[in-house]
Specification:
There is one protein chain. By secondary structure, the chain is an alpha+beta fold. Helix content is about 20%, strand content about 30%. The protein is built from 4 helices and 10 strands, in the order αββαββββββββαα. Strands 2, 3, 4, 5, 9 and 10 form a 6-stranded mixed sheet that branches. β3 and β4 form a beta hairpin.
Length: about 180
């Protein structure tokens, strides 16, 4: 089952009280391909020493706002799971990413099919998330958030008016509406 907006929102809500205010001591991976950018060493250096100030969601991405204006974006994709466990907890071969917290806990990402992706961005003065090499906001091309209070039936009618596309492909188009996938469309 592919996580969609409700599943990712649930992960964010459950993760929030567990990690808010926690300081990241380090990062571990045995699957460097999961790091979208920057490179694994720069990612590890970029998160180390930063505090998790907020946990949220944008479309199907978990978003961890870090101190100093940095953002970790995590997409668990099809088989990813997120756990917060004591440091050194035995885990199986499917745990491929860990944020090591200073208080002795680990945020583990278990992903049987290795589809999960993680990235580190910095916030610019306007609040956009920018990649380490200065590329544009990774969330810029996403459509409106269906759970945003400003997203009303009237707003949806404006968006859909005049469209000739079939309804389901339109609803799963992330540029049209963020976070909706096959199950809910």
């Amino acid at each position: 089952i592919v996580p969609e907006l409700p599943e990712v929102e649930t992960i964010a809500r459950e993760l929030r009280p567990l990690v808010l205010g926690a300081r990241i001591a380090g990062f571990w991976t045995d699957w460097p391909k999961a790091i979208k950018h920057p490179d694994p060493d720069a990612f590890a250096a970029g998160v180390a020493g930063r505090t998790i100030d907020q946990v949220g969601r944008r479309a199907k991405w978990l978003v961890l706002e870090l101190s100093g204006g940095w953002v970790v974006a995590l997409q668990v994709k099809m088989t990813g799971q997120v756990f917060v466990l004591p440091n050194g907890t035995a885990h199986d071969k499917h745990v491929h990413l860990k944020l090591l917290l200073e208080d002795g806990r680990e945020v583990m990402v278990r992903d049987v099919r290795k589809f999960a992706r993680i990235a580190l961005y910095r916030r610019d003065e306007a609040g956009k998330a920018l990649g380490a090499d200065g590329e544009t906001d990774p969330f810029e091309e996403l459509g409106p958030e269906p759970l945003d209070p400003a997203f009303t039936l009237a707003r949806f009618r404006v968006l859909i008016r005049g469209r000739r596309a079939r309804l389901k492909p339109l609803l799963v188009d992330q540029a049209f509406l963020a976070g909706v996938g096959n199950i809910y469309a």
